[in-house]
């Protein structure tokens, strides 16, 4: 069961019976949810009828591998719009010694959320109450949220090497199976490309080329058209590398190349 199916199964088991309910609980797109629902139906783990969605039986894979214990990091670090809870602010419904005071009527996001440590994907160095880092998976991203009391913790070891490893795995995957590794720390937003950190990635995407096995040169796109031009130039760089054995990579992070790309790249690389 992939991560999208797992998220949808948890949401349905927690009480989500409509498409809107599952979207609110998982944050996934309608298309991804529909694919997950179809797959769950084929495996006879879910039924759709006039009353909405319902699970046929609890799935063993949907159960956490661990228990939260003393950790309430998700109630402190994560944003929960349904109860007007901002990121890195303890939920007003949390009480020391009591826990969640609205547990029986908590939002779907809270019901279905299971962090990567709780699922058993990470060792005890990543215990959120200790590390100040919450990791959770979506179908197209590894999402990392950091406590603002230790905003640079994710850059330290053993955390950074693991995040870089995930990032490289996501980059190497083919087609729509690839995923991004995204970090939210205070007001900062970061995209990881191996050990290269892209600050404040744009909504339009980031074009990149490998420099070493785990570092990259990157350009943040300012529009869909800009991203297309960057990708066209990268394709030309790769072609020149194949023909001549090398090609100098333009260094200006935010430059905006204009076709034709080949003559300028050949001159820059002294191949003209």
UniProtKB/TrEMBL annotation:
This protein's name: Zinc/iron-chelating domain-containing protein
Source organism per UniProt: Bradyrhizobium canariense
């Amino acid at each position: 069961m992939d991560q999208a199916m797992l998220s949808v199964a948890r949401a349905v088991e927690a009480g989500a019976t409509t498409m809107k309910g599952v979207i609110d609980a998982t944050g996934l797109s309608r298309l991804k949810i529909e694919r997950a629902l179809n797959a769950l139906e084929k495996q006879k783990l879910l039924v759709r009828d006039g009353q909405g969605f319902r699970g046929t039986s609890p799935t063993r894979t949907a159960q956490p591998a661990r228990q939260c214990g003393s950790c309430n990091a998700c109630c402190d670090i994560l944003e929960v719009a349904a109860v007007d809870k901002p990121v890195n602010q303890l939920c007003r419904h949390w009480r020391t010694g009591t826990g969640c005071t609205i547990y029986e009527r908590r939002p779907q996001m809270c019901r279905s959320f299971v962090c990567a440590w709780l699922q058993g994907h990470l060792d005890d160095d990543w215990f959120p109450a200790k590390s100040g880092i919450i990791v959770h998976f979506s179908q197209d991203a590894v999402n990392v949220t950091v406590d603002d009391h230790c905003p640079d913790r994710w850059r330290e070891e053993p955390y950074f090497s693991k995040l870089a490893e995930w990032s490289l795995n996501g980059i190497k995957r083919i087609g729509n199976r690839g995923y991004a590794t995204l970090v939210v720390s205070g007001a900062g937003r970061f995209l990881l490309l191996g050990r290269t950190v892209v600050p404040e990635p744009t909504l339009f995407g980031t074009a990149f080329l490998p420099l070493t096995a785990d570092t990259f040169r990157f350009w943040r796109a300012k529009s869909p058209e800009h991203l297309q031009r960057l990708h066209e130039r990268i394709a030309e760089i790769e072609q020149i590398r194949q023909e001549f054995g090398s090609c100098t990579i333009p260094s200006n992070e935010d430059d905006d190349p204009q076709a034709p790309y080949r003559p300028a790249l050949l001159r820059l690389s002294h191949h003209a």
